[in-house]
Amino acid sequence: MDVKIKEKFDVFKTEVKKLQAEEGEKEKKFYKFLDMLSSFLQDIFKVEDDEVTIFVTDKKESLLSFVKPDYLREAGIIPMTSQDSFAVQSLVSAKAKVINHMKKKRPSSIFELVKNPDKPNYPVQKLMVVPLLLKGKRLGVIEILKKAMSSSEAGPDFTEEDLKQLVEIAKEIVTYFSFFRPEDYKPKLNEG
Question: pTM of the entire structure?
Answer without folding.
Answer: 0.89
